[in-house]
Amino acid sequence: MNRTRSGLVHAVLILVALVWLTPTLGLLLSSLRSREDSAGSGWWTALTDLGQLNLDNYSALLQDDGMLQASWNTVLITVPSTLIIVAIASMAGYAFAWLEFPGRDWLFLVVVGLLVVPIQIGLIPVAKLFGLLGLFGTVPGVVLFHVAYGLPFAVFLLRNYFAEIPREMLEAARMDGCGEWLIFRRLVLPLGMPAIASLSIFQFLWVWNDMLVALIFADSGSQPLTVALQSQMRQFGSNIDVLAAGAFLSLVVPLIVFFGFQRHFVQGVMAGSVK
């Protein structure tokens, strides 16, 4: 019974994995086929005719200055947004969890309340503010918007995780003469690495795949890859070779980041358990 049940579970999991991977496989094969092949038959025909597959689409995409600039803009938006949020939220989370200051609980309630504010509410007011400040249509403007709307969740997540650290451990460090900054840097950050890694993954994936914020706050010179692909689809409805190759390249980078941080996440969990 146990073997039958285990085999059935494995079969179901394999079936679910195949269903989830089918669109990704279709996107990969479409990106390796010419426009004529894509217009004449479905992507699954390439499984039996491997001669349809080539790297011409990727070669053309890498020679497109507009797509290269959009890819670089995506990196310039995503990496600073992730690093700034992790840095600010980790310090704020430690302050809310272990430092005593006037109005701490009320201020944390404000942070929690900001979690329920829809992002659509701030689009028009922030666009007007950025226009007055000269940030509208620039990469720093998009980064600031992502940082502002990503901080409430980041602070909430890290504060709750840091609060689970044993108080005795922090008090022992204070008795040994450690200041708050040294405790935060040498003790809290290593123990909080699992939550920080999770936050980094969430924030990176959200900003990298975002199109709404970039569509509003970025112009043609600062638009990321998502907006560039959307404009290609609007202008050239049958431009499947560019769209498929660009979409798959946009998919590969988050996967690499996810699996890289996943290893770091497991190492952080083990280090925290040992300490």
Shape: globular
The helix count comes to 13
The major sheet is characterized as: none
Averaged pLDDT, please? 83
Rg, alpha carbons = 23 Å
Overall description:
- With 275 residues, the chain is mainly alpha-helical.
- The chain folds into two domains: 54 residues, no CATH class; 209 residues, MetI-like (MetI-like fold).
- It contains 13 helices and no strands.
- The chain is globular.
- The C terminus is likely disordered.
List the helices and strands and how they pair.
Blueprint lengths: L1 H30 L3 H6 L15 H7 L2 H34 L5 H10 L9 H11 L5 H24 L4 H9 L4 H12 L1 H16 L3 H6 L7 H11 L4 H35 L1
Task: Briefly say what this structure is.
77% of the residues lie in helices and 0% in strands. With 275 residues, the protein is mainly alpha-helical.
Main attributes of the structure:
77% helix, mainly alpha, 2 domains, 275 residues, MetI-like fold, disordered C terminus
